[in-house]
Amino acid sequence: MLAACLLPLCATGCEKESEAIVSIALHPTNPSILYVATNDAVYKSRDAGATWERFPGFSARRVTTVAIDPQLPATIYAGTMGDAVYKSPDGGQHWLPHNVGLKEHVSFVNQFVFHPTLSEKIYTATTVGAYYTKDGGREWEERMNGMREVHIVTSIAICRKDPALLYAGTTGGIYRSEDEGRAWKKINNGLIPDEELMASMALGVNAIELDPVNPDVVYAGTTKGLFWTKNRGDVWERIGQNVLDPFVSSIVVHPAAPSEIYVGGPHGVWKSADSGKTWQAINQGLRTLNIRALVMAPKNSQTLYAGTNGSGLYRSTDAGATWVSLPLKAAPAQR
After folding, report:
1. How far lies 90's CA from each of 68, 73, 95, 173, in Å?
2. How far apart are CA 134 and CA 233, in angstroms?
3. Is 296 helix (H, G, I), strand (E, B) or coil?
4. Which of 58, 61, 57, 35 is nearest to 48 (CA)?
5. 50-83, pLDDT tens digit by residue?
């Protein structure tokens, strides 16, 4: 019965690659292995993006996010639109649905976030709220207590030094939990006035990142600009006003030098060397500036990957100064 649910690797080679890269996941220790999600499927490269294999679609709808278990990197999670969560135990060769406890009408999985030391504990942001699993996705439970105003959770961040501390970005601003998501408190002071939140989709929080050295400092990328807080969200302040478009889709904070920050959005990749006070565009080599995903290599902070909404995947090996396209082309057939 179980084997009948397994989805095998696409045997006919890669189809024409999608031009939209919606999610990027990098292997925690092997820089040659990476996964990307497009609107159509999940792709895997074993040679740092030179060639790719394509996994089949998981539903009639599209893939929305992909994540690698940081402690068991052969285990991959894929979120979809319309079919919730899939999990692969073998590096993407086979996939199984992992949806027990998720509401039947979960229509969009936005993000997976792993506990920093116990990776079977996972939080996921969905269009019907925040969910948590303690057993690698075998069973999920809703964690929405305190989020009365909103149900669409767009992003989640966890504090590596204090894993009980979580932030959730929603279409109604940001919430904080200090008890592993069991209860949430709205923390929108300086972010958006309550009267503006009455409007539908008034403020979407697309990305949240914590300063890796000082966890009191948090960055939030929203549909209306980049914000930061120095007191765990009690008060927020707008920064990055000279970035051309206020829409921020992704944030990267340098793990060892947290004053170095990267953001992506509709006008490309921007970099700050002074904790967000000043910014410069770093788009040389990008054919499309609409950035959907941005990540830094775990073992080499000079290497960045950017997923665009029109010309595929790019890599920089010089901290964003220049970018090179990585087409999702198939590996040559084995003889």
Report:
1. 11, 9, 9, 37
2. 27
3. strand
4. 35
5. 999 998 766 656 889 999 999 999 999 999 888 8
